[in-house]
# Entry
Amino acid sequence: MEQATGRTGPGGAALLELTLRPLPALERESYPTERVRIIIRPDRSVHTFPLDSADRAFKHRNPPPVRDLCLQYPYDDAALRWVPEDGLDPLVTLIHRHLLYEEAWRRTGIWPAEDAPHGQPTHGTHPLRMAETQQEARRWTRQPSARPRRSPPLRRLWPSSS
# Structure
């Protein structure tokens, strides 16, 4: 991370603006430095907006009107999602990795990891297809929360079909 600023926004949301440099090997391949705005709302939902991105295509961006990055599916297993208890470092890593993947996709037409399905699954959660992703989901399994389960706040951002 090259630069970071933060403040409290409307309704008590945390507003962060970050400048993320590419990894050294990717910088040598002219991957861009990315600027992003992260909004963490009091309801724990996260919205990430790439800045200076009007002229670039994005494979995983939520539909209008919000148009934030599609970083995670709210109904996926908690092991596969960022939650505030994880802290900011894992969130920034998730965002940075996502932006690097977007650039790789723009250059090659291939998403460099298991591509999460979109839309509502017919039941449960979407299946994990790659052994590596299944292994990571087991590795990062979270203990059930004592808090009552609440409906995910980003539900309205997900299309009902792919």
